[in-house]
Amino acid sequence: MNFGFAAAELMFGLSIIDKLQDIYGLQVVINNLPNFAKGAWLTLEITVFSIVIGMILGVIAGLGRMSNIKLVSFISVIYIDFFRGTPLFVQILLLYFGIIPLLFDATAIQSAIIACGLNSGAYVAEIVRAGIQAVDKGQMEAARSLGMTHTQAMIHIVFPQAFKIVIPPLINEFIMLLKDTSLVSAISVPELTHTGKMLYASTYQAVWVWSAVCVFYFVMTKALSILGDWAERRLATE
Amino acid sequence: MIVVKNLHKSFSQLEVLKGIDCHIHKKEVVCVIGPSGSGKSTFLRCINRLEEAQQGKIFIDGEEVTAPNADINRIRQEMGMVFQLFNLFPHKTTLENVTLAPIKIKKMRKDEANDIAIGLLRKVGLGDKDHVFPSQLSGGQKQRVAIARALAMQPKVMLFDEPTSSLDPEMVGEVLEVMKDLAHEGMTMIVVTHEMGFAREVGHRVFFMDEGILMEQGTPSQIFDHPQNPRTQSFLSKVL
Asked: What parts of chain B have a pLDDT lower than 50?
């Protein structure tokens, strides 16, 4: 607790008199840890489901963009352009209030996952394309010269090498996605940022509440980057 | 065995091959020499259709490689290719590099493919390097693995695209030695090379190419000792 004191004092230059207030703020955070945890858990759930959707769409659109079939690459480009070229926040609103209700019933959480997944897919598509194109062309030629079909060469030679190249940007994308899920608080999904908003509204402890929210986000993104480092090390061929 | 008729190839505006005609016999070693940009590599790459020719025909054992409906994947299995930059698969061990195609394409059993691969690696002098990744090998060793990889498909022809051009000088010999052995075993080989010594010693015939044209061909002594074409004379005077 002393440490929190000193750190807050250092960062925000609070006077001694305000410290009483600080202790109250800390109490608020401690008392609401279960709520933060619940919000963080939902953030994680939204992120994981969005990643799954984003990866599936991203691989399809990324390969689609490189396809020789004009229609397939055209559709892929439109999809990528739209979701990369407009704000995620607006996409969340458009899908939740506008498009999804026209198509089927979905909760705010489901809408949030769909919006984040669609958005992430566009970025993943470009990562996938960049990864495949980064594999030396000689690799495909060597595989084809042995008599492999294009598909066999892709599966056995190009994809495994592209996968390794793609891990750092992919982890980066997942981290961005996790942070961007904070935007779905706008449609009242009770994730971490929404938890912070509610708590702030009832306590006005801006520094403590939002700092706590930051810590929760940071722990989750750090965990993701550690996971990425581990995956990179495992795939190293030396 | 290999017949090439009026082969033309352009990259957009640039015409790289301007009508190549030639005939390569079984068990023959043909070395293709010439200045850079003369179309040597493109010619070689057209033979297994890594480059698509615009005009002309290529036949291997009477089968037209350039036919639109040719089963190019099967035809390529019978043509091994060795590249200037090795193009080994970096995510696989040397053994896996050699066994991959037999297992995936010929559906060979793994232990059988391993036996053949070990034999081939021994043959190129790398019997002890089977579980090493390409990044741990020297250039000469990489190229020898690449030769073993191509041989694993038991090809009828081997195409070499400047196999020693990116090697340090002290490693050129070990690769040429392997190629020489292969030639003595009766493998049909087309070798694009700048190694005039190899062409003279191992080649049965030498093609001199310049500006997309097969300017002159003949036995090594005809080409190297009594070149007829002034282009050949001028090229050889610069390199010998």
From this structure: none
